[in-house]
Amino acid sequence: MRYKMIAMDMDGTLLNSNKEITERTKMALKKADQKGIKLVVCTGRIFTSALFYAKLIGTKAPIIASNGAYIREKDEDRIIYKKCLQKEKAKEIIKLAENEGFIPHVFTEDTIYSTKLIYSSKNYTLWNQQIPENERVKVEIVKDLYDVIQENDILKIVVMSDELDKLFKLKEHIKNNMDVSVFSSFDNNFEIMAENTSKGNAVKILADYYNLKSDEVICIGDNENDISMVEYAGLGIAMGNATEELKNIADLIIDSNDNDGIAKFIENYIL
Fold first, then answer.
1. Is the pLDDT of residue 1 over 90?
2. How far apart, in whole angstroms, are the C-alpha atoms of residue 4 and residue 35?
3. Could you tell me the residue range of the domain that residue 184 belongs to?
């Protein structure tokens, strides 16, 4: 078989709008796994959250989290790759965001920090209520994010707001004036990682880890932060619900995340 690895985004791709993996998708992925294809969860989410869903599909492959800043084995505590934001840059980003009235969130490999329970921290707190305690994401509300940055390795910072024009303006300012990677995973957010961090780079690192060529890799996504991996892949796929920007560079457009797009693709093209 030509393809040996499938890297899949989570939100808007592997997960439907209810944040679920359908039984049809689970079955299709199980059959792909049985054919020897490596199934990789590749997400902007924190590792703990990605791990929960990786267990649901039964993948054995390492997980790519935090938009490619962190690659770790699924079933053992071994980090394959980790790239952190420089502390001074992280502090500058926090200052810029707070000066504009935003509530930034700081992500380490296992904890989300914020000064207020809102957006990401609130969403993960609600999500934690539905899952076992040992699988929950750590969320900490703190007074000062600068202390968090000083004392921890920072994988990414997320800025989220419903003031879209103001948000976009700050995103473009950071993107054009700082040596960092900036992507959006939703219409109302942007995420900042260390320079040259991307899902595409992380998928390449994992492909090299398995001695695979890019034309043996499939990547599937729906948003701006998936562009780099869709461009890298031998077969780059956009979901039916993907942004037009991603659809324009994809090799193939499949059905939406609410219509079992991944399951249908695997059934028709892989199995």
1. no
2. 9
3. 87-194
Q: Which residues contact 240 (CB under 8 A, 6 or more apart)?
A: 253, 254, 255, 256, 257, 259, 261
Is residue 126 domain-shared with residue 177, that is, in the same domain? yes
Mean pLDDT computed over 6-32: 97
Percentage, residues of the chain above pLDDT 90: 100
| 232 touches 216 (CB < 8 A) | no
Helix (H, G, I), strand (E, B) or coil at 77: coil
The one-letter amino acid at 265: F
Assign residue 163 a region: left if phi > 0, alpha if psi is -120 to 50, beta otherwise?
A: beta
- Reduced to 3 DSSP states, what percent helix, strand and coil does the chain have, rounded to the nearest 5? 40, 20, 35
Query: What CATH number should be reported for the domain holding residue 47?
Result: 3.40.50.1000
Q: Residue 161 to residues 25, 183, 260: CA-CA distances in angstroms?
A: 32, 15, 30
pTM, whole model, 2 decimals? 0.97
Nearest Cα to Cα of residue 25 among 54, 60, 57: 57
